[in-house]
Amino acid sequence: QVQLVESGGGLVQAGGSLRLSCAASRSISSFNLMGWYRQAPGKPRELVAGIINGGSTNYADSVKGRFTISSENTKNTVYLQMNSLKPEDTAVYYCYGVVDHQDNWGQGTQITVSS
């Protein structure tokens, strides 16, 4: 069973930055894709950013230019650098990965942006 463990969440003021990390229990090069989703209270879970094996990335329109997804194969870790945070970015952020045709999710980490 694949484990994805997020870290780096917390409370930050609007305009600030945070970096989330997602450590996988196996080589991330074996994943077809990895990404970050988020879910705010009362809203559906939404894709924030994704990275495909090979390096292609995609972002939600709401975070383009502010968030950057990256990976470090030697550490089996995917990152989400979040800059210029806004109160509307407040949510639980989940790491996601597809490997061996199966979806895998982390436990989630809370991000709260105060105005």
Termini, distance in Å?
40 Å
As a percent range, the share of helical residues equals: under 10%
What composes the largest sheet?
7 strands, mixed
Stretches with pLDDT under 50, minimum 5 residues: none
Spatial shape: globular
Element-by-element helix/strand order: EEEEEEEEEEE
The pLDDT mean sits at 96
Report the structural category.
mainly beta
Strand content: over 45%
Q: Nearest-angstrom radius of gyration?
A: 13 Å
- Care to count the β-strands? 11
Number of helices: 0
Notes on the structure:
By secondary structure, the chain is mainly β. A hairpin with a 2-residue loop joins strand 9 (91-99) and strand 10. Strands 2, 4, 5, 6, 9, 10 and 11 form a 7-stranded mixed β-sheet that branches. It has a 4-stranded antiparallel β-sheet with strand order 1-3-8-7, with no helix packed on it. The protein contains no helices and 11 strands.
Write the SSE topology:
Elements: E1 4-7, E2 10-13, E3 18-24, E4 33-39, E5 46-52, E6 57-59, E7 67-72, E8 77-82, E9 91-99, E10 102-105, E11 109-114
Parallel strand pairs: 2-11
Antiparallel strand pairs: 1-3, 3-8, 4-5, 4-9, 5-6, 7-8, 9-10, 9-11
